[in-house]
Amino acid sequence: MDIEMQNRIKTYFDALSFIDDSNNEYESYYTISSLSNLLNLPITVIRQDIYTLIKTTRSISFLEIEYDNIEDIKPQLLSGNLDNESLYAPYYNKSYEISLTEEEAFAYNQLNNTNIKSSHNFYDIHILNNIDFFPEDVINKISIINDSFTFQCALNITYTSPKIGTFNKKIVPEKLVYDSFENTYYLLTYENQTIYSYRLDRIIDIDLDTSLPSNYIQPDSSVFNIIPNVWGMAFQEKPEKVKIRFYNEANVFNKVKIDLACRTNGKIYEKNNYLYYEDTVYGISSFKNWLLRYGSSAIVIRPESLKAQIIDSYKKRIELYNK
Predict the structure, then answer these.
(1) CA dihedral sign, ordered 48, 54, 55, 57
(2) DSSP labels, 233-248
(3) Per-residue model confidence as pLDDT tens digits over 15-41
(4) What distance in Å separates the CA atoms of residue 172 and residue 174, rounded to the nearest whole number?
(5) What percent of the residues of the chain are helix, what percent strand, and what percent coil, each to the nearest 5?
(6) What pLDDT tens digit does each residue of the chain (323 aa) get?
(7) Given CA atoms 221, 223, 227, 232 in this order, what sign does their dihedral have?
(8) Which of 15, 72, 105, 182 would bridge 100 by S-S if both were Cys, CB 3.0 to 4.6 A apart?
(9) CA separation, residue 248 to residues 273, 294, 297 (Å)
């Protein structure tokens, strides 16, 4: 699944109504036609996305259309006969408890207008979500990881790395984080005074282990204060100071503020009808890929090396268009 489709899917779930199964009532809903207008996307793209979501995850459905298999109504859906039929995302009342740092809790409160409070030096939240949005094996892994947090024990994992292949390892999880840009969960550990990340989708097997490694020393929570500065889980990369200017067009200000809500160590401010973002960034390549989404609405002020990379990227795109 490409990044653009992931972003569209997130918008679908934000927009679609949630049905209360107890009384089958709803206040509002969207259709394929209205989603096309809302997102300013070709209606053929919306039709294909909805078909894919229903077929692969069953996390979106038509409110008043009965069918046993999505293939039964595929011709109607893709031809446009269902463009004005109501859509909804079934609401599953299941939760997972995830520990947040003070900065992450602050960002969560700001985004969701909540007031979660601290317990045992962490901020515990129960995330209600569409259970089918992630594969079942990912949900099972998250459940085991949260048990390891609760009982303060280690994990035995079988992990596949693109560089070194498959291996077994005993780890002590310190944080579970979600990268919304990559639509991926990561498990963080602290080993030899370094933060390491493990992608959940690359963990083949995972089990609880009640004994901790003999050399394990619990890190001070302050070592994870750099998490808001890290892009693409690049904890080992050299940090770089960035300053970006955004133009006030096409709702860019709001989009940037939402994207950067968890980047709590940086500064976001408005000046002379521009929006500025200043921060220290680990993982400049991932940061650059995020920045490119804003096209000409984003201008790099520093560093010069990033400015040169952006210019080079646009030159290569122009060359492709001229072929």
Answers:
(1) positive
(2) T-TTSPPEEEEEEEES
(3) 664 444 444 444 456 789 988 877 777
(4) 6
(5) 40, 30, 35
(6) 444 555 566 667 666 644 444 444 444 567 899 888 777 778 888 898 888 878 766 667 888 888 878 888 999 999 999 999 988 775 443 444 455 555 556 665 665 555 545 443 333 333 333 334 456 677 788 888 888 887 888 999 999 999 899 999 999 999 888 777 777 888 999 988 899 999 998 999 999 998 888 888 889 888 988 989 999 899 989 999 999 999 998 889 988 988 888 888 999 999 999 999 999 999 999 999 999 989 989 999 999 999 999 999 888 888 877 76
(7) negative
(8) 105
(9) 7, 11, 8
The crossing angle, in degrees rounded to 10, of helices 43-56 and 70-79 is: 170
Instruction: Please state the domain extents for the chain.
Output: 3-88, 95-224, 240-322
What single-letter DSSP state applies at residue 282? Answer: B
φ/ψ (deg, to 5) at 56: -95, -30
Average pLDDT, the chain: 79
The tokens 């993982």 sit on which residue?
283
Residue 233 Ramachandran class (φ > 0 left, ψ -120 to 50 alpha, else beta) = left
CATH class held by domain 240-322: alpha beta
Contact indicator for 240, 303 with CB cutoff of 8 Å: yes
**Range list of β-strands (E), the chain:** 61-62, 87-88, 95-100, 118-119, 122-128, 154-161, 165-171, 175-179, 184-191, 194-199, 203-209, 240-247, 267-271, 274-281, 298-302
